[in-house]
Design brief:
Layout lengths: L6 H10 L9 E6 L2 E5 L4 E6 L2 H5 L11 H8 L2 E5 L5 H4 L11 E4 L5 E4 L7 H10 L4 E6 L5 H8 L5 H4 L1 E7 L6 H13 L5 E2 L5 E4 L2 E7 L14 H6 L3 E6 L2 E5 L5 H11 L11 E3 L11 H7 L3 E4 L7 H9 L3 E4 H4 L2 E5 L4 E5 L7 H13 L8
Bound molecules: zinc ion (ZN) (2 copies).
Length: 377
């Protein structure tokens, strides 16, 4: 499809922390803490927070802006991948799957929360949203009903429903068991909400943001008994693409390879909604149950963010890097924030530097598999 274009320049800047190179694209700024590259259509900027803030990277989100106000004032979409690089170390419950939780502010100031993490992270979902100035969640999106995705919505009496005005709830009407489906519906009812069901082919307009739904398929609706098969539930994850101008963000929960391939098949004749994807949340916490090479090739994101609480699976990194994606993960990067005005975007991470061994290993590997995209050094 497209891009891959200038990513190698970004990589060079990040690895070497020096400005470099002369090809069709040019580095307009490259210093130790901020990098940006101009391409035909986008300016990609990678900001690393100042030292004082990096040190504070832990459970608490390091950003202090009133997100809805700033987004509305600037007419921009703001995405916060909630996570923390320290979670695994601090509490065994976080090991491996602390869960998913992505907070999105739309350009008109409306808010969307996609999933709500699990276990001991639940209080931080609430406190981090409050820190970002949130009082109302206009859309709560439940990708699927696994406990590492519904924690602060379903597993607590002091979560998002109790602390914020939740206006709309979206799900795919699929559940691991009947009892979880009943619990989810009861919680919605308790707060006077009739959940909206979205399935493949559905669309939604929220102000200037267009939402396409590509998973699960219509016939999956009402599946409430997967007999404990995690992979079936994961394959029923809600897959959505948010489009704002030239910026596209893709979220698809814990989809496994089966659903990835099924999606590719369903959209082969008309893949237009997948063209120009800017950022993807890697499926199933970046695991190799998912994120197959064909999927990476099909969507070709510019950025892939993994929320997991530990290192990124090498094969996942490789698959996305192979098609030009710049990979971030919560373990090395802490909370990742992406802001776009629909033309350009800025990615901010909490990582001290990509000189750390995690990225050294991965970046070296990327250079090996696609020397045309990544600089050898
Ligand atoms: Zn999960
Ligand atoms: Zn799951």
């Amino acid at each position: 499809m497209k891009k891959a274009l200038s990513i190698f320049l970004v990589f060079a800047a990040l690895i070497l922390a020096v400005s470099c190179s002369s090809t069709a694209n040019k580095v307009v700024e490259a210093k130790a803490s901020s990098y940006s590259v101009v391409t035909d259509t986008f300016t990609y900027t990678y900001d690393v927070l100042a030292d004082g803030i990096q040190a504070a990277c832990g459970y608490d989100i390091p950003y202090t802006e009133n997100a809805p106000q700033v987004a509305a004032a600037n007419g921009e979409i703001r995405i916060y991948y909630m996570s923390s690089e320290h979670m695994k170390i601090d509490n065994g419950d976080f090991a491996d799957r602390w869960g998913d939780c992505e907070f999105v502010v739309l350009p008109d100031g409306q808010t969307m929360l996609i999933d709500s993490a699990k276990g001991a992270y639940i209080p931080y979902v609430v406190s981090n949203l409050k820190k970002l100035g949130v009082t109302t969640i206009d859309y709560y999106v439940q990708s699927h009903l696994h406990n590492d995705h519904y924690g602060a919505m379903l597993s607590t009496s002091n979560g998002i429903m109790e602390n914020f005005t939740v206006k709309n709830i979206i799900w795919a009407d699929c559940a691991h068991t009947q009892s979880i489906a009943d619990k989810f519906k009861a919680k919605c009812k308790q707060f006077g909400i009739t959940p909206i069901v979205l399935l493949r082919g559905d669309t939604l307009e929220i102000g200037e943001v267009h939402v396409d739904v590509f998973n699960p398929k219509q016939e999956s609706r009402g599946n409430y008994n997967f007999s404990g098969a995690d992979e079936v539930m994961n394959n029923e994850s809600l897959g959505i693409i948010l489009t704002f101008g030239n910026f596209k963000a893709l979220f698809s929960g814990d989809m496994y390879v089966y659903a990835e391939e099924d999606t590719i098949k369903a959209y082969t004749d008309d893949p237009s909604i997948f063209e120009g994807v800017t950022v993807v949340k890697t499926n199933h916490h970046g695991r190799t149950t998912s994120n197959c090479r064909q999927w990476a090739e099909f969507i070709q994101p510019v950025i892939a963010v993994t929320t997991r609480g530990e290192g990124i699976d090498l094969d996942t990194y490789k698959n996305y890097a192979r098609y030009g994606a710049h990979c971030f993960g919560d373990h090395p990067d802490g909370y990742v924030r992406i802001v776009s005005d629909g033309k350009n975007y800025v990615t901010t991470t909490c990582s001290r530097t990509r000189e750390m061994s995690t990225y050294k290993t991965l970046d070296t590997m990327a250079a090996t598999i696609r020397p045309d995209l990544w600089p050898a050094n």
